[in-house]
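Hi support team,

I'm filing this because I wasn't sure whether my run with protoporphyrin IX containing FE finished correctly. The job status page said complete, but I'd like someone to confirm that the output block is well-formed before I use it downstream. Pasting the exact inputs I used:
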Amino acid sequence: MTSMLSRLFQTAFFALALLILGAALPAAAQQPTSVNPTAQSVKEAQLLEALKPGEPISGRASIPNKDAANLIQAGRDWRAYNQETLPRLGMLALLGTFVALVLFYLIRGKIRIDAGSSSQKILRFAAFERFVHWLTATSFIMLAVTGANVTFGKSVLLPVVGPEAFSAWASFAKIIHNYVGFAFMAGVGFTFLIWVKDNIPDRTDIRWFLAGGGLLSKGKHPPAKRFNGGQKIVFWSVVLGGAMMSLSGWHLLFPTVEGMAEAQWHATIHGTIAFIMTALIIAHIYIGSVGMEGAIDAMASGEVDLNWAKEHHSIWVKEEQERKSGSRISGAAQPAE
Ligand code: HEM
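And here is everything the job wrote out:
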């Protein structure tokens, strides 16, 4: 009986030993004894300490893609800017402009035509000029909305609409952004060509700015040519800002052609200028529509009220009347001075 019991114990002991050995074998196979877990090469903290701003930690790669040789790419600063600083600055710029415009509206109200409407109109923008304006404007607004989705979509929209709807919208927005960019580039190019001659800064602009553009007080309108100082700022911002957006956007369409660091640089320029331009354009849209009586006619029918033109662009009206001897002015034969 005793020997039977001792045999049973022996068999059970060997079975247990085999089981333990069997379970341990695969783990031992995964962990070759040649790996030293305390070796310098596996200490990520040391690698991150060695990482200098703007410089990647690189090895050698025999394929043409130089980014493939980077063990760690110095993109942490860019990521912090893109994911934290830019959204904050962007939100500040957009909300700041919005609040400033609401305050301006509450204090100054809608800028009326001081002399009231006249029965006469003067042609301000020809059909092609209006076409170029609306090409640039519609494409810019589409780009601003779909571009803002890249910065704010995940944090603002995704929690509200859910992953399915957000994913469908974001994929659509990306395609719109990539293709509409070309319409915007064309718009910016034409804007420069048709209006550069009227947007060279001169002394009239200094006087216009010193008088606050006549925007702050009723009845006082500093003289202005076809475009006043404020409009020249809008023009050059659209042309230069638009050119930089186009160039950086072009690079972002093909981000792997140059390299990771270059793509990050272009993305930084693109995002930063986008918010500056959008803030400025929000102010432009306000003053070109609800903020000023009679302004929108210039970009709708192309003809503005003569009193509006005299108040906001007195030098231009005189030049037009002299040049055309009143032939562009419809209504009465000669406009009242
Ligand atoms: C719904 C949106 C918009 C409205 C209602 C609007 C309205 C106007 C109006 C009424 C003018 C003529 C002002 C005048 O007669 O003196 C104008 C001019 C102009 N617009 Fe717009 N606009 C809009 C969007 C945009 C956008 C998105 C851009 C460019 C990104 C743009 C660029 C320009 C430029 C460069 C001028 C000439 C300079 C100036 O007048 O400031 N506009 N706009």
